[in-house]
Amino acid sequence: WSTAVCIYNFLLLTLLPWKEVLKKKVGKKCSCSSARVKALLIDSIPIIKWLPRYQFKDWIIGDAMSGLIVGILLVPQSIAYSLLAEQDPIYGLYTSFFASIIYTLLGTSRHISVGIFGVLCLLVGQVVDRELTLAGYPSDTNQTTLGNVDNSTGPICDRSCYAIMVAATLTFTAGVLMGLLQVGFVSVYLSDSLLSGFATGASLTILTSQIKYLLGLHLPRVQGWGSLIKTWISLFKNLGHTNLCDLITSVLCLLVLVPTKELNDRFKAKLKAPIPFELFVVIAATLASHFGQFEETYGSNVAGNIPTGFMPPQLPNWSLIPNIAVDAFSIAIVGFAITVSLSEMFAKKHGYMVDPNQEMYAIGFCNIIPSFFRCFTTSAALTKTLVKESTGCQTQISGLVTALALLLVLLVIAPAFYSLQKCVLAVIIVVNLRGALRKFGDIPQMWRVNRLDAIIWLITMATSALVNTELGLLVGVLGSAFCVLGRTQSVQDLASYKGCQSQAEVAVFRYEAPIYYANQALFKKSLYRHVGLDPVKEKARRRKLDKQRNQKQEGEDQKQEMDVSTNVYLLQHNSLHKLVIDCSPVLFLDTAGVNALKEVCKDYKELGVNVLLARCNTSVIDSLRRGGYYDPKKGIKDIQFHTLSDAVSYAKSLKSQNGDCDTVV
Known about the structure:
- With 665 residues, the chain is mainly α.
- Helices cover 62% and strands 4% of the residues.
- The chain has 29 helices and 7 strands.
- The strands form 2 sheets. The chain has a 5-stranded parallel beta sheet, with helices on both faces. Strands 1-2 form a two-stranded antiparallel sheet.
- The two termini are 42 Å apart.
């Protein structure tokens, strides 16, 4: 009966037109039913799945407390990081508000806080400043100044309007790359040392960019390579124009925030929630600036008018996308890498699972949807995630509470921050860089643990800080790739293993990498060097001596002398009759790798040395078989064992000059 069914299916497939078969298969895959729609909806919007199981009595207090505290902390930080992204303060509040809501609906991590992240704000600010310059806007922040933008088809766009247009378009493009095109898979190739070095280098750039606000200087942002060094040169040249009011305010805020932040860190285990000293400083500084009339009397640079409510949505500027696509790509990679690493770290700590694919969609739509409401790029933020965890967060509902707190500020409180000095916002940014800058103290430990990772960290950090931020990411990726290639081209010596002993007449060689086109030459070179017998050189020596022997006929004594010299090299290796190659670290072979092993077997066979491949995995065995390595006619047998000791014992049992090449697994 089964045979008849198979024949029927075969005839059905061969007789029916291929278009009809394809149509049936596509129709089956694309069929729409209520069950499929429900499953797709649950997979796409995870809150539908977990919200009905929400344990209100047990979880609501922790979610409400953590969400409220994060919302309070986000108010000053959102306003401050808007400065870094070259935006008005209101747009930072918009960004944090929309990101909190959307991730609650689409995210699978219960603990991470999605919002403004300093490194991404730096990247956004660099792009915005570049595009403002190209559009003809001056470097100052005069909101009424117009650029060379064609406004014939719409309302007049001043500097602030064009800045958020660029940022929103950049955010939309990055969101599409993350959520729809799913380029986040590239982040798999970003090592922890690379990301840490990139973040530290970017932190140095952020610190440098905020010094002008701490001193009250009106300097344009430096673009291009070497911006950090150029910025410091510009700062030293303009020290004489320092605003004393801003400088004194900056020093006082630093004297308050640095020790209080340290106290929060030191006593975080005893405190139910971190004390929001940043908010206290912002309130005190705003009141002092307002009643002291710092802007009118001393010329301090203040936040300015912060409107209430929401502005109508607007489409991205499609014409800008070709200019910012490369920048959006690097932003997408960094944002996704940070988000996924944090979500997986906290999920593992608390014993639940996150879906990386869904996280890709979530962080993508956390950028796509808000980009229509004048927001800039977001990702997970470590400091606020730690605050959520430490204050009892249980589910994503805490994100909704955070959004409600921000909504209150947007609708009622925002205009009260008009007199807040920008130097206070710069102090908040600088103080929050402490964690990244402390990585410099970890360099000796990194060097002791793994020198290659330490080198990658140093190269990425130095390039990001001293040359260019985006270039630092690229250099770090290339450096990591070269380190991986270097690690695949190394060999382990006997001295690397303790307690190992050599065997008479048998040499064991272990290569700690796959054998493929990039390292097959080095594999052979390492093998010949460590075994001490290079078959290529030995055969060349023999041919040369044979040629000399044929040319010279100088008597029996000279002939005997020539024979002795011919065998001098072989006499040094007369104890080597078997060579066992331990292939357990060899994960795969390509065509070049198979051919390299063929050459090794053939060359050693001509010298009377047996070659055996030990402990090959199934992938390597399949590659050897498909590549024609086994050839019983040429004496290459397929004999399989499971341990290296069995392979050595088998090698000893063979006759010393049979010249066979076997495979021992």
